[in-house]
Amino acid sequence: MGKALVIGIDDYRATPLKGCVGDAREMERLLSHNDDGSRNYDVRLITSDETEISRGSFRKELAALFENDRDADLLFFYAGHGAQTEWGGELVTQDYAPNSLGVSMNDVITLANKSVAREVVVILDCCFSGDMANVPGLQSGAVAEEFCKGLAVLSENVTLLSASRATEPSQEYGGHGAFTRLLINGLEGAAANLTGEVTALSLYAHASKAFGEWDQRPVFKSHATRPSILRHAVPWIDPALLRRLPDHFKAQGVVGEDDRCTRGGGTSTRGWRPGYRGAAGVRLPQRATQCWASRH
Fold first, then answer.
1. Which of 34, 35, 159, 275 is deepest in the core (most CB within 10 A)?
2. Residue 142 CB: number of other CB atoms within 10 A?
């Protein structure tokens, strides 16, 4: 069982949001259990409607997530305001001040990169979230900000999913972040493979396709050596049926001695490629620019 920290902040003094607490609660619901009811992540949920989320408390919770993390599967999700500063991107807390907006994205990625966990997945739905893991010193200062390439440094088995590029705002739509709304749909099964596995990569692929070229552009960064399975949804095909497929084709005479060919002295069998089954789910918004609030 993995360990996850899920934080959602709506209640800011001057610029409140409306979907971040709902995002966090839905992510907690989906990450804590697989579709069959089995335990998945042990989730610690923190939302601004129940407690004040200060810079100090945020950092304390992050440190706790990475304690005793050897061989663990860790996940961090944040929904709230994000900001760009002279010192890099920040996750804004409720006690923000002019020169201290919250927790630095550099602090988060430092903990992730130093971790001895088996894998670390970080998911951010906030403005400028694509700045996570970018190293300013690797980018030429002579290049205008809008043309900068994000040069990131990630340790092995660290994966990041961000709602937008480092220079873009992230939008809310229908009571959720536009990005998280798609993540929820994907975790419920729309991003699952035939056996029901939802991975970080399949979740990103599912979400990113809903955004047009003029919309916010989700970002995926990874130094993975194995697929990060985030949840088990309902399989599209009964696993027991899949296990019986070789017997079925052998009985039908589809695969036999006549189907074998030799290349360079070796023997291979012609593969059978099954068709793809699409995911029936919620009709998703075509343009994120229709959203009514920005998370910055």
1. 159
2. 5
What residues does CATH 3.40.50.1460 cover in the chain? Answer: 2-235+277-294
What confidence tier does 242 reach under pLDDT thresholds 50, 70, 90?
Answer: confident
Quick one: which of 112, 110, 104, 47 has its CA closest to 74?
112
Its pTM stands at 0.81
Four-point Cα dihedral 182, 184, 187, 189, nearest 10 = -70
Crossing angle for the helix pair 105-114 and 55-65, to the nearest 10 degrees: 20
Assign domain 2-235+277-294 to its CATH architecture. 3-Layer(aba) Sandwich (3.40)
Q: Measured between alpha carbons, how far is 212 from 235 in angstroms, rounded to an integer? A: 29
- pLDDT tens, 166-177? 989 999 988 999
* Separation CA 28–CA 260 (nearest Å): 50
Query: Distance between CA atoms of 80 and 52, rounded to whole angstroms?
Result: 13
What token pair was written down for 164? Answer: 């937008």
Termini Cα distance of the chain: 34
What one-character-per-residue DSSP string does 203-220 give?
A: HHHHHHTTS-TTS---EE
- The pLDDT of residue 258 is above 70: no
Instruction: Name the pairing type of β-strands 88-97 and 82-85.
Output: antiparallel
